[in-house]
Amino acid sequence: MSDGSISQDEIDALLAGVDMGGMGAAAAPSVQFSDAQLTAVKKYIEENVPALKSNLESMTGETIGFDSPVIEIMKRDDFLRKIPEMVVASVIDFNETLVGDHIFVMTNELATKIVSLVNHEENADLDEMSLSVISETISQHVGIELTALEKAGFSGVANNPAETLNVPKAMVRFPQQDFVVFTFPVTIGDSAFSLWEIMSYQIGGEIAKAFGAADGDIPNLSAASGQLDMSGMQNMGGMGNGMQNMQNMGGMGNGMQNMQGMGGMQGQIMGMNQNVQSVQFPNLQMNSMSAEQGNIGLIMDVFMEMTVELGRTRKVIKEILGMGEGTIIELDKLAGEPVDILVNHKPIAKGEVVVIDENFGVRVTEILSPIERVTEM
After folding, report:
1. Range scoring the smallest mean pLDDT among 12-16, 96-100, 207-211, 338-342
2. Smallest Cα–Cα separation from 138: which of 43, 41, 59?
3. Is the model's pTM score more than 0.85?
4. N or C: which end of the chain has fewer CB within 10 A?
5. CATH 3.40.50.10190 is right for the domain spanning 306-376
6. At 197, is the secondary structure helix, strand, or coil?
7. CATH number of this structure's domain 8-216
8. Which one has a higher pLDDT value, 308 or 284?
């Protein structure tokens, strides 16, 4: 008999929104792709897989296998049941022409394997530098996806910088409504892994349209999301005008947006069928950027140790004990080769030694990419 306490597994499940008792069946997605949409989106994804494979192989030096991706429409709780407790998630949302959620999720085992191969070490820790390698990998692949989208007619499409974290799955910011999940079976050597790409249903529908699905093949995206058509209420007497006016009230606008997830409101109001379409809300991206800049300002006066490294070498203890005045130590750098610039013992740049008023200095000649920073360590 239970003593009334809650286990850690139950706590994690509650945080993830997963029913531990198994009493409730998984809720079916309120929308699905038509055959034409599936064909179009699969074409878009499969055209970009060779570039992802080539990129990973060049980084890791290993042959990477990719099977045909599986495309599904899922809800958040259903997807949480599908993935392990701890994951590595890269949030790299679309902005500009397409605006919406875009997330890559991989198992810790896959992330560790990639970083270990890139860094030439066994079982690399998923620390900040390792996660920056994953961010760089995802950013390069999304850059290829954006190029494909531009060729398909999305002029000026862009993305936010990738933010990669190793966290419990319940902490990942998944879309709350139905979203598209692309599952990539990945093999490295004899090991099999999973990589997931996630985007909102609305963006998936737009991509399907750009890659060959006709307008008639695409279900009403707004109706699927349960959004309200305020113009459809104009014939309800005074109530129509009242609801129209609510669109312009800033505080009420957010309240109406939150009502989209209420099951009883999906597609019906007071038992009447409604023509449903999207309600437009202000873009909050600029406010988010201002907050980030303000947070960075809090640490601008923090001191960090900067070191210039001329070179390195390895000696046995016998050679070190035999050193004396006049001993010459040969380093692993050639004459005239750039020196390494490190911050808190991590390489960030390369430079050349200069003399300024009888003092040594270093002129920065190159800023290292995240992948190079890991390789240089």
Report:
1. 12-16
2. 59
3. no
4. N
5. no
6. strand
7. 3.40.1550.10
8. 308
Residue in 39, 177, 178, 156 with CA at minimum distance from that of residue 94: 156
* Non-local CB neighbours of 146 within 8 Å, separated by 6+ positions: 157, 158, 159
Q: β-strand 339-343 against 306-309: which pairing, if any?
A: antiparallel
Distance CA 158, CA 96 (A): 6
Residue where the block lists tokens 């560790």:
112
Are 366 and 338 spatial neighbours (Cβ–Cβ below 8 Å)?
yes
Annotate 8-35 with DSSP letters as a single string. HHHHHHHHHT--TT--SPPPPPS----H
What are the residue ranges spanned by the domains of the chain?
8-216, 306-376
The 8-class DSSP code of residue 278 comes to P
Q: Which residues on neighbouring strands pair with residue 38, listed in sequence order?
A: none
pLDDT in tens, 35-57: 888 888 888 988 899 989 998 99
Residue 283 has a pLDDT of: 55
